Amino acid sequence: MKTIIGDNIFNNFIEVDFNNQDADQNYIEQIYQSKLDGFVTRGVLSTEEVKEILDIASKVKEEDCLPTSNGRLFPYPYATISDKEKTLDGYINKNEALLRLPLEKFRTRIQDFFNKYSGSFNAKVPKVLKSDTPSAYGTFRFFMPKMGGLFVHCGYFFQEEHAIYFDVVEEMDKAIQFSFFMMLQYPENGGALTIYDMLWPEVNAKDVFENNEYVLDKNRNKVYLKDVETFSVRPEPGDILIFNGGPIWHRVEEIEGTRPRISFGGFINFSKDGKDLFYWG
Known about the structure:
This protein is α+β, with helices and mostly antiparallel strands. It has 6 helices and 21 strands. Strands 1, 2, 3, 4, 5, 8, 10, 17, 20 and 21 form a 10-stranded mixed β-sheet that branches. Strands 9-18-12-16 form a 4-stranded antiparallel β-sheet, with helices on one face. Strand 20 and strand 21 form a beta hairpin.
């Protein structure tokens, strides 16, 4: 029998239509209030709009991307910041490469999406304090074939590894963090998001980040992933998924075939006064 580590979350994901004008659209606020764990929004971009974004993304210069074990990221993500001087300056400079791309319509659509589903929160991109310029509003992630997927992790695990980000942008509450991404292209096979019924802080460590066999619970006992309940989420190109990725452990399955998996996404946090929603990469 499979085990559940923490609360059962499987019945707390929903699917919505971006073009539906229903009055009750405060789904992000519902996650914030622990009434919901995640939702997929269908049709945020049309097929033609997705093609336009992919065409622009295909022209990104190699030197502007961060190589990773499974592909590359554009622009350089917050995880590259290790101090408040040189690496922060590098992060700011690399962000400018994203802002130079002709993505005004895409960026507006992302803002429209957050305005529509944020409820009472004021949705915006956080500013980097040193330069008074916006942080990246997300990152393009290129998962390449035969280079694996994304190892099992959760947002709070990354927070502990890269906590300095919260010292260099305008004040955010890191106690609540969600994940979001828009799917742009799927590989021929693989690349689905697997969500584990396993929550931080009951499970809060890994001995090696690349380990996809087991994680460690708060007593340092091994929890084997094959023994934990899972389900897969597969948004279509043009869809956006938001879920409570801070405490929920998840991974991207290995990429098979010849076509890369391409997505755009990042994280969601909130201001300490509970008024603003920040989305960022």
